[in-house]
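Run log, item B.
One chain of 241 residues. Sequence copied directly from the ordering sheet:
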Amino acid sequence: MHATWTIAQRELAAFFDSLMAYILLVVFLGISGFFTWWFGTDVFMLGQADLGSFFNIAYWTLFFFIPALTMRTLAEERRTGTLDLLLTKAVTDREVVLGKFLSCLLLIAMALACTLPYYVTVARIGPIDHGAALCGYLALLLMSASYIGIGIFASSLGSNQLVAFLIALLIGAFFHLLAGIVAASFTGVVGRVFDFLGMGVHFDSMSRGVVDSRDVLYFLSIAGAGLLGAELQLAKRGMPR
């Protein structure tokens, strides 16, 4: 666990050193703030004290941002040769993957924490369902964990960051869009299976204030599968431990 945390700290520092963290925070806050307060179905147009507008835009913004965040996690280290050096230390493949995952998740948590003034402001405007708001934040964090797992797996497949970005985006698009489209086109068992695989169903359920163990398990399963795939990729390529 100590090695995992050390790697996570190193990665988080690297995000800030390369300006990636600052760019993510500024762009995420700019887009979410604009659509939450000034454009489209913003808080004032809805006429009710809830964060539905923010959760909807964050749902899409993080879908695009996370592949950009994770594309360098293993691909860049493989390209520069530092991954080989890292894996010769007293760390396992799993500790490397978990450290990368934790650093990305912490950065997303920081971005979401920066939006807490939205919550405070809306709560001052009128009576807000605090449970639904907190569940919405939890849903965003769990959804982010899922996409981070996918992104790290995509980054483990090679040394090209752009390819890693596109692969993560394509895999994520299946859960984000395609599963729901297919579910709407079929009935019976097939429709129910694809409906369950769709990210939106689970996200919407939690953002309304309903914490179902099946939704939590869904997000954690995708994240776990992605991380396991990344770990297997490192082992498959004969990397030294």
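Observations after the first pass:
- DSSP finds 13 helices and no strands in the chain.
- The chain has a mean pLDDT of 86.
Flagged for discussion on Thursday.
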